Amino acid sequence: MLLEADLHTHTLASGHAFSTFKEMVDQAALVGLKMLAITDHGINMPGGPHAYYFSQILGLPQEINGIQILRGVEANIIDVNGSLDMPERLLKTLDFVIAGFHAETGYAIGSVEQNTRAILGAIQNPYVHLIAHPCNPEYPIDIERVVQAARSAGKALELNNSSLFFSRPGSGPRCSQMARLAAKTGTLLTINSDAHSCYAVGKVEQAVEVALQSGVKPAQVLNTSVRSVRDYLQSHRQRLKRIS
């Protein structure tokens, strides 16, 4: 399974990542990607970017050396309703919005029911395109309900390579469960690096293996083609227009 886009990456601005914007883009070109989403952490992340950063990111080019750039954020879920740490005025301007749980950003780890409710709330947020690393065992959820909700809302769930490689031990069985359910229901997935340095851009081998072993078809993995990503974002914009 070949991917044309990496939709979850971080630069120095996130506070605990190690490469510049230019280094990330250069590496994307080197590994043969056609699209890169820069999704630095939301404003509650300790040491991360402040709100003004996300207004200035819009000044970055949308294409560099043949690489299409999505200016985005990985927003932090901060309560059981799925509220995010990013104001709506900023969310509506960004190309790509991810939402997920992170320690020390305002969300107190809850029960399976509370965590699931928070994820479901984030899925219903009209600005959210993708739920990040939903298989993190530190934030247990009802994976079946989340997959069903994502499918109903036309939102994507993430198979996160970093979770499988080193950053979230114990994610493997949950990722396999989610991938099997997604394969069965036709739920949209993305497979991303969650790179925190340029050396990890496009590194998705473990996540691809889980997807293939679980019966996931390339057609339901959003970032197998730039066209699929663009079509998804366009349909998302059309939904926003209908509700605004």
Automatic annotation (TrEMBL):
Xref: CDD domains: PHP_HisPPase_Ycdx_like
GO-annotated cellular components: cytosol
SMART domains in the cross-refs: POLIIIAc
Family matches, as Pfam families: PHP
Domain Polymerase/histidinol phosphatase N-terminal span(s) in chain numbering: 5-79
GO molecular function, a single term: phosphoric ester hydrolase activity
InterPro entries reported for this sequence: PHP_dom, PHP_phosphatase, Pol/His_phosphatase_N, Pol/histidinol_Pase-like
UniProt xrefs under SUPFAM superfamilies: PHP domain-like
Protein name (Swiss-Prot/TrEMBL): PHP domain protein
